Amino acid sequence: MSEPRGVPTPAAGSAAPAFSKSEMMIVAAARELAGQRVCFVGVGLPNIAVNLARRTVAPTLELVYESGAFGAKPARLPLSIGDPTIVTGATAVVSMFELFSFYLQGGLVDVGFLGAAQVDRFGNLNSTVIGDYEHPKTRLPGSGGACEIAINARQVFVIMRQSKRSFVDRIDFRTSPGNLGGADAARIRREEGWLGRGPSVVVTDLGIYHFDDTGQMRLDSIHPGATLDQVRETMGWEPRLADPLVTTPAPTPEELRLIREELDPEGAYTK
Amino acid sequence: MSKVASMRDAVAEVVHDGDVVAIEGFTHLICFAAGHEIIRQRKRDLTLARLTPDLIYDQMVAAGTARKLVFSWLGNPGVGGLHAIRRRVEDADPAPIELEEYSHFGMVGRYTAGASNLPFFPLRSYFETDLPKANPLIRPIRSPFGDETVYAVPPLRPDVTVVHAQRADAEGNTQMWGLLGCQKEAAFAAERVIVVVEELCSEAVIRADPNRTVIPGLIVDAVVVEPWGAHPSYVQGAYDRDNRFYRDWDAISREAATTQAWLDEWVYGVDGRAEYVAKLGSERVAGLRPSGEAPSGSVDYGVYK
What pTM was computed for the model? Predict the structure, then answer.
């Protein structure tokens, strides 16, 4: 999905290069992938983040697309997850039955990337409707593979921009389960036989959240240039803050070079 | 026996008002040519099933062919929403449309159950979500072998499945490569199957590479040879996805009037796919060719006498 252009943030001290909010999100998400092996990818920012991770912190990362490509090596930035560039040169191309049954439900996916229209403090996601299901104010795309990714991927990364409309106290529809109602989520997942342990990180345009032992989102790192006031103004609940709250290291010149010269040279997602 | 038919005859004979129709293909190999012919023949009251309704069902819904959608992801991939469908859902404009909604795995499982003559397909999905409330056909089921509960979805058996592919012989033995989606499951699940191909090949070509045969002629009712029949979707190795059209559709479809004007020009206004391709123009078409070749290696099946 085409991302709106953010305002470039000049880094403090001005020795480091300026970068956009999208670039900071991509870099933060890529760094979280250190040590991971198999990642279920979506288009847009997750796709760039995963390809950046493969060139930096996770060289053995295998890309899986729900359209059926495993070990994809896209030679250009795909607009859709079904682009022909994810097929040519892939390790395997399988039917969607195999992809969902053997790869995902079989437990081979370490990280699934999800986004949504709404998220709550427990990382539950809505991508189905805004308003009432029968008479929606806005009809959104629906689950796609998100529901089973949330349940079967070993962990889930969420990438979303913060706003009062998207970071809400109560989501209108639960499409993809996160930490459910909080502390008992781990027990419910175990008892119901889910493979996944749920959302582990939420990367936004303002910071990086992980989940504490009550199953709630906790701001652990704030991006350079972002303020706590901005964080509070763009979410529907009082955020939990890590102590100490750290500042996300700015993108390095090499990370920015990879994004701008190799991964998104036209700036379709990152300007 | 040759099953080769024109698109007009195949749709006229195989697709009936009120049918459940699945034009499958996950981003890849979506047969727009068949969808447009269904529009031209003014079929009505169809139930349209697809994982991703995509632009083809947005167009078919805008043209008034459908009363119901069965799906798992209702969007314009990489671009945004499907506006003609959204008008029906959000504003009942010009009339409401019935929705039956699953997840991708649920839809794949439904075709699989339909193809294998099973009463349901079990899967580990839907736990603790609102989807079973939105669609009561998604139901929990206890394992007969222990305490576990999983969810079950019912079989989907389309009256007609339409599959696009690179090549088939005259009997309908069909080979495809690239993303396979759930074309095979949807075809085996269907009562009747139309195969639409870029190229008609000889039986010898099929028999030289039997692992690549996804659909046997045994289940095929009609073979239509329709080059560029998947545009603006794509065919691996033949032509690229026309992302420009996927983006353009967003603006075209935002108003009912511009949507109808597009249908008048590009669907009702042409007599078939060949005229549509000519109208696209040689420059647009040439720009969608792959930038180079990437042939597979060949394998040796051996001769055993």
Answer: 0.95
For residue B177, which residues of chain A lie inside 8 Å, CB to CB? 93
Write down the ipTM of this complex. 0.96
Closest chain A residue to the Cα of B101, Cα to Cα: A142
Q: What is the spatial distance between Cα A215 and Cα A198, in angstroms, rounded to a whole number?
A: 10
* Residues of A that are catalytic: 66
CB contact under 8 A, B129 and A176: yes
Question: Would the pLDDT of A99 be above 80?
Answer: yes
Summarize pLDDT for A55-92 with one digit per residue, the tens. 999 999 999 999 999 999 888 887 788 899 999 999 99
Cα(B266)–Cα(B260) distance, rounded to whole angstroms? 10
Q: How far is B53 from chain A (nearest CA, A)?
A: 10
Is A225 touching B (CB cutoff 8 A)? no
Give chain B's residues under pLDDT 70. Answer: none
Task: Quote the pLDDT of residue A81.
Answer: 83
Q: Each residue of A10-62: pLDDT tens digit?
A: 444 445 569 999 999 999 999 999 999 999 987 778 888 998 999 999 999 99
B72 touches chain A (CB under 8 A): yes
> Can you give the length of chain B in residues?
305
